[in-house]
Amino acid sequence: MHSQKGFRYAMISLILSIVALFVTIVSIRFELDIFSLVAGFIVILIGFISLFGFIASLKGIKEKNTNKKVLGLIINSVFLLGFVFIIVANIYDIYSALN
Question: Does the predicted model carry a pTM greater than 0.70?
Answer without folding.
Answer: yes
